[in-house]
Amino acid sequence: MATQSLQERCINSIRFLAIDAVEKAKSGHPGLPMGAAPMAFVLWDQFMKFNPKNPQWFNRDRFILSAGHGSMLQYALLYLMGYDSVSIEDIKQFRQWGSKTPGHPENFETAGVEVTTGPLGQGIANGVGFALAEAHLAATFNKPDAKLVDHYTYVILGDGCNMEGVAAEACSIAGHWGLGKLIALYDDNHISIDGSTDVAFTEDVSKRFEAYGWHVLHVKDGNTDLAAIAKAIEEAKAVTDKPTMIKVTTTIGYGSPKKANTAGVHGAALGAEEVDATRKNLGWDYPPFEIPQDVLDHTHKAIERGTQLEAEWNNVLAQYKAKYPQEAAEFERLLSGELPANWADVLPRYTAEDKALPTRKHSETCLNKLAPVLSELIGGSADLTHSNLTELKISGDFQKGAYQNRNVHFGVREHAMGAICNGIALHGSGLIPYGATFLIFTDYMRAAIRLSALANVGAIWVMTHDSIGQGEDGPTHQPVETLASLRAIPNLTVIRPADGNECSGAYHVAITNAKQHKPTLLAFTRQNVPNLAGSSIENTLKGAYTLVDCAGTPDLILIGTGSEVSLCVEAASKLASEGKNVRVVSMPSWELFEAQDSAYKESVLPKAVTKRLAVEAGVSFGWQKYVGMEGDTVSIDRFGASAPGGICMEKFGFSVDNVLAKAKALLS
């Protein structure tokens, strides 16, 4: 004990908070915090800018624990550094109901946690989004005499993150962009759940990152050589034109006599006997959850440092406001999360006489009407810009040396695109990211879309080629089950607009949601659709509305989405000419409709009308909720086919004649 330096005691405090919390919970991952404690302590103690008393201070450095299973590492740091969000009682409640210390870090639960991590590789990819946001804002707002935006993104990732494809995608594009303020510390401990990584992971990670265009360093002794860790971080910060990966070789479960360097310490409590042995081995003569006062006195210095750093930055901001009032006003608007007054007035409105166009074309119009009034709108496509129609004409391309631009080319990297967009939104600077691909390829970015919903991320997912109407590319590119699976994700608003007005309404929802930290997924057609009499932005906001009504109680309600709504309108007209009372309901969004009050929902879909037919070029799954036991669907419960889109639609029954036939069968 007497020979331990204060730094070593601080590091052991991190280790034993993790050990004791996992032991009390009888669940968790103590090995990573035990091995990574030295690098984490050096980073937080000597390098990171943050204010524990204001976790949302804008110019803080961001820290992401990509290896989220080691969450106790982050909770221990937050507690020791003086964050109010994590008390010693919270540490004791690790992984328990309602605690601020869940099993994996969650940004919506614990102040000081920047992103929700756990699925491996997501965190480092989020970090690329953070670094992109910093670079973009710095290029947009900084002046030669005023560095308003100037912070780093630090990530600790593990072997598992480096095995995941999403990390490879994201790190590849980060190298291309030259994001010099992204610094990743790789906890190179050679152990995963299955044991030694030699069973499945023997590549030279350093050479891979060098090939990506990263600056690569290696700390050979990450267990005890604190000076080498500090030197590596200094060197990383000195390289401004490349991201840096510091491989830090550590021992998982460092200090445990029997379990260190084994899979047994990765994801399970040490056990009482081994906890005692580890205490003796590391000279830690304190009971569970007790931290020496000299350690707390030292780590709590972060509060004074952070308060001073924020005060200095506030002075920079004040000087900036005096010299550059227009730019300062826009910067402060972004940080406030407020939208400009009357921003939605730019969204176009259409009449039934306006030209029929694909809804992806209406989407392009919306993006380019919004871009001049919403400087926060930034994004692009996964190598499908001219198919998705997502280019902002007002801007150039975001590239190395041109970070002020807003068109982001993600390359064929759907999963990384999703995670990077999540990072941009979670950066906390008010940016609204959008990511685009074909609807079918949401399967390639499902984890990122799910996490956007889970972690309250204000991202917009722009998906085109939304059905078998996509045509000749065939069933690999024709989504049939995709909408149903996306609607199953809680907290994700899915909108499939039918025409130009509904597209404008969809973007109204998406932008509003983004500022409320909610994701929205928009599904657009490749093929032309007519503009419909009775559609409007305002109606779209309700999720479903009566587009065509009849006199008296309807005999039948036709419910359509997207390109199939026009089929319902034509079928209803023919049925009306035969004396039938038919209502047409356009239902662009189930989620928006469910958010309406019961009186409104009854007014659109009265319970007394049991004859209902839903028409959507997707699977029937889920529609029973709206058509009931006596209703039916025009749907496709099989994969599509390669043929022109119009032929596919006709062959699979998406025609006025087939809608009529199904409707008459219900009425009879």
Which key phrases capture this entry?
single chain, 668 residues, alpha/beta, Rossmann fold, 3 domains, six-stranded parallel beta sheet, five-stranded parallel beta sheet, 26 helices, 41% helix, elongated
Question: In brief, what are we looking at here?
Answer:
The chain has 668 residues and is α/β, with parallel strands linked by helices. The protein starts with 5 loop residues before the first helix and ends with a helix.
Helix content: 40-55%
List the strand order in the largest sheet. Answer: 10-9-11-12-14-13
CATH class of the largest domain: Alpha Beta
- Domain count, please report it: 3
CATH level-two architecture of the largest domain: 3-Layer(aba) Sandwich
Structural classification:
alpha/beta
Report what the structure shows.
This protein has 668 residues and is of the alpha/beta class. The protein has three domains: 6-305, 3-Layer(aba) Sandwich (Rossmann fold); 343-529, Rossmann fold; 543-667, Rossmann fold. Helices cover 41% and strands 13% of the residues. It has 26 helices and 20 strands. A six-stranded parallel beta sheet has the order 10-9-11-12-14-13, sandwiched between helices. Strands 1-2-3-7-6 form a five-stranded parallel beta sheet, with helices on both faces. Helix 19 links the parallel strand 13 (493-495) and strand 14.
